[in-house]
Every structure is written in C-alpha cells, then in structure tokens.
Amino acid sequence: MNLNKFTKENIAIAFYTIYILIAGVCYELFPTHGNTPNGGVLLLYLFVPISIIYFMVHLVKQLYGNQSYAKCLLIHGVVWISVVVILSTFSK
What we know:
The protein is mainly alpha-helical. The chain is built from 3 helices and no strands. The chain has helices at 8-29, 39-64, 70-90. The longest helix is centred in the middle third of the chain and has 26 residues, at 39-64. The protein starts with 7 loop residues before the first helix and ends with a helix.
C-alpha cells in the first residue's frame, strides 16, 4: 500500500492553503498607505492569474496525460467558489 503524502491533490490543497494564509498575514502585517494596496491585497490580485495558470496545467495534464487530474480540477473549482463567497460576505 502506497501512502505517499505528496499526491497531486495534497499539493494543490497545500498550495491554496499556504497562499491564502500568506496573503492574510501580509494583509495584517503591511498596512496600506494612501492609495497603494498592501501586500495581502496585492497577493489576492496575483491569486487570479496564478491559480488560472495552475488550473490550466492540470487541465492539459487531464486532457493529454495518462493520469486523472479530475480531483485537482475539482479542488480548483471549490477554492475559487470559496474565495468568491468569502470575499462577497466580508465586503458587505
């Protein structure tokens, strides 16, 4: 029985967890000055293109590779929906 902890699904979950935690810490540690966004907001702006690129890598591997990346694609969708729901909840 293979108990590899570094599966592609665990890596995807760890990426999103660590990235969002770092963005939250940067948001708290580096306050905004005037019209410039702080580090956390900048990381959230970068979250969109980085996560889209990561999603596209998994999509190409799903379509043209030998392994199934369906769970990884589901993880991307769940994270995007969660971030949108959380941001819309706190913006009200």
